[in-house]
Specification:
Jelly Rolls; single chain; seven-stranded antiparallel β-sheet; 3 domains; 658 residues; mainly beta; 46 strands
């Protein structure tokens, strides 16, 4: 047992100012860093959200702007009219503009806050500073708290507001609130600077920051080796306290194909485990690989870390189970584990930590996927989701909205699945197109060919409180939950009572999700590996003279002969059938398809007197190794056209042979 000699909580933080004696707004700013407050109940408050979701049940969640405002006035759109006292905790949009947005507080005639809509998120306008505000994955977000004492009206002065989410904490009790200041005091500036630096630590271990948050912190270190079928404890305490940090380093890679290492936790010898989750999924794996580097949990340089506080009244037990399975290669697994804890037992105004893992394969069409459904008093603080489509092609299932019903009332309704994770515009380059981690949210993965994606979101200042029950669901499809999916989710929450059940994962649910039989490679995200000298490539659209349907294409042009080489993400070794969709046309000519130096389709002709769409034409067989592979389209000299040769590529398909 090793003890860390800690700074007392009310002494200086590493930025050099105390945690007591601050003004209301300074306290709100410091809450952006107060991981230690996560277990605390939000008394006499209701968390709600205004959003641009389509109230008719359709998918016009901001595209037209029809549902993006409360009322239209002569000088703009009123997008929020909040009455009473509260705090705006989160703003999100994927469609910021340079138009003006105004915030009117407490019945004032003039806006106390006025700026470009885009500058809520750009980091260019103080006090909206990165990374407390920002973007990166298609969505623009702000977590800068905006309190109001008597009310807040938000007015947008552009021609059209599109997608918007405004999440706020409505205060119903006696808590005093001071409205957003016209200018920050020195103490408030220090608090904001501290929050900014704290959020920049995302993806790093917070071990040396724990004493400033939790007081005297101890650590227990253990090295555990397990054989298949064994279960061993990592941490055991028979008195009240709280776990404030968990760091686990597997000395061998976790099984990517079968989640055979299970993390379990029990508080106060409760019959139902508080945590019963595959180890990798708990720390933000995506389809078997590390993917999350958030402020609160993730994987950093091989260390699986969590700083979610876990208070308990009488006892705590953390364990690892190693499930035996004869279908997959298994050997001894060794883990180096450090648990950081204090003797500060759970307080009356705090909940116990719980994590609910579930896998939902092929949910009934017409019904959403349930992420969390619980009774009691508590709050939801995090969602991790791995989303696998069961049909090939575009990830349209991620059009589905999130819905959160609290105490029998629908309080939050989102505008799309990636929007829930503060993202936007899946399948567009430099938007929701790959794994990317931010302090409290991120994309876990994205692949059109594999028909999969995923995201995570932690809720600190925007945690969703419930007094009696909570029901959080997410749709799978633009409308009517009509796209078949395979969803793996993990919900983090605090509650005053254990769940009625937290079942052990079924063996079939621990296998890696299967991808569709056909992989589609859409040109929007098709990586171009190389172009020949004199060959050009542009993204445009072309239409078939027969059906008048315009489609996205890569237009490849060469003065004489040339080539374009494309990368194909492939999940496993094997023999694959290659198909291509393309246009024939008057400027097109002979072409061949190669896998490196091996011809797959030779001397075909893409010439036609008018543009003619060729859908999913068989090209040949590819022998592929897992990972990144390439195909090359060679343009041969066009004898019909002195201006050169062209090829109009629409889509590539691979189908694995049995």
């Amino acid at each position: 047992m090793k003890q860390t000699h800690a700074l007392p909580l009310l002494l200086l933080l590493w930025f050099g100012f105390p945690l007591h004696g601050f003004s209301d707004y300074r306290e709100e700013l410091l809450k952006l860093t107060r991981i230690d407050l996560l277990p605390r109940f939000q008394e006499e408050a209701a968390v709600r959200q205004i959003s641009s979701y389509d109230t008719t049940g359709g998918n016009d969640d901001g595209f037209s702007g029809r549902f993006s405002y409360l009322r239209k006035e002569a000088d703009g759109f009123v997008i929020a009219d909040l009455r009473g006292k509260g705090v705006i905790q989160r703003l999100w949009t994927p469609t910021p503009t340079g138009d003006t947005i105004q915030f009117f507080f407490d019945g004032e005639k003039l806006p106390r806050l006025e700026l470009k809509f885009s500058d809520l998120f750009s980091g260019k306008r103080y006090p909206f500073l990165r990374p407390v505000v920002g973007n990166e994955i298609g969505g623009y977000y702000s977590y800068l708290p905006i309190p109001y004492a008597k009310g807040c009206i938000i007015k947008y002065k552009g021609e059209r507001m599109q997608f918007i989410q405004i999440q706020y904490r409505e205060i119903t009790g006696s808590e005093e609130v001071t409205s957003f200041p016209s200018s920050l005091s020195e103490g408030e500036k220090e608090a904001l600077a501290y929050a900014v630096e704290f959020w920049k630590l995302a993806g790093n271990l917070l071990t040396d920051k724990l004493p400033a948050l939790h007081g005297e912190v101890r650590s227990a270190e253990i090295r555990v080796s397990l054989q298949p079928g064994e279960s061993k404890p990592l941490f055991r305490r028979n008195r009240g306290g709280r776990i404030v940090g968990l760091e686990i380093r597997p000395l061998q890679p976790l099984n990517e194909r079968f989640s055979d290492i299970i993390l379990k936790a029990r508080w106060n010898r409760e019959a139902i485990p508080a945590i019963y989750s595959p180890l990798g999924d708990f720390f933000g794996y995506s389809f078997g690989k590390p993917a999350m580097e958030s402020l609160l949990a993730g994987v950093s340089r091989g260390i699986h870390y969590s700083y979610l506080p876990m208070p308990y009244d009488k006892s705590a037990l953390l364990e690892l189970d190693y499930l035996k399975n004869d279908r997959f290669a298994q050997g001894e697994m060794t883990f180096s584990v450090t648990v950081f804890y204090t003797d500060d037992k759970r307080k009356p105004d705090e909940g116990k930590f719980y994590a609910e893992w579930k896998r939902t394969i092929g949910p009934p069409l017409g019904q959403p996927v349930t992420l969390l459904n619980k009774k009691g008093k508590g709050h939801h603080v995090g969602t991790l989701l791995q989303a696998q489509g069961l049909n090939p092609g575009m990830t349209l299932f991620f059009e589905g909205d999130d819905r959160c019903t609290v105490d029998g009332e629908l309080r939050l309704h989102g505008t799309g699945s990636e929007d829930y994770f503060n993202g936007g515009w899946y399948a567009l380059p430099d938007r929701w197109d790959q794994a990317f981690s931010l302090p409290l949210h991120g994309s876990l993965s994205y692949s059109v060919p594999l028909a999969r994606t995923g995201g995570y979101r932690f809720l600190m200042t925007d945690k969703i409180s419930f007094g009696k029950e909570i029901d959080l669901t997410i749709e799978h499809g633009p409308e009517n939950n009509n796209i078949p999916v395979d969803y793996t989710s993990l919900a983090f929450y605090y509650c005053d009572r254990p769940p009625r059940s937290n079942l052990a994962p079924e063996e079939k649910h621990l296998e890696k999700p299967a991808i569709p039989a056909t992989m589609e490679y859409w040109i929007q995200l098709l990586p171009v590996k190389a172009l020949a000298m004199g060959t050009t490539l542009s993204h445009t659209r072309s239409g078939d003279e027969k059906d008048h349907n315009r489609r996205d294409i890569f237009l490849i042009k060469s003065e004489k002969s040339g080539f374009a080489k494309f990368e194909l993400e492939v999940p496993s070794d094997g023999e694959y059938k290659l198909y291509i969709s393309y246009f024939k046309g008057p400027a097109c000519g002979p072409f061949s398809v190669y896998q490196r130096q091996i011809p797959v389709k030779e001397h075909s002709d893409a010439y036609a007197p008018e543009e003619n769409f060729i859908e999913k034409e068989y090209a040949g067989i590819l022998n592929i190794k897992e990972g990144t592979n390439t195909i090359t389209i060679h343009l041969e000299e066009n004898q019909r056209n002195s201006d050169g040769n062209s090829f109009m590529l629409h889509r590539i398909y691979l189908e694995k042979n049995p």
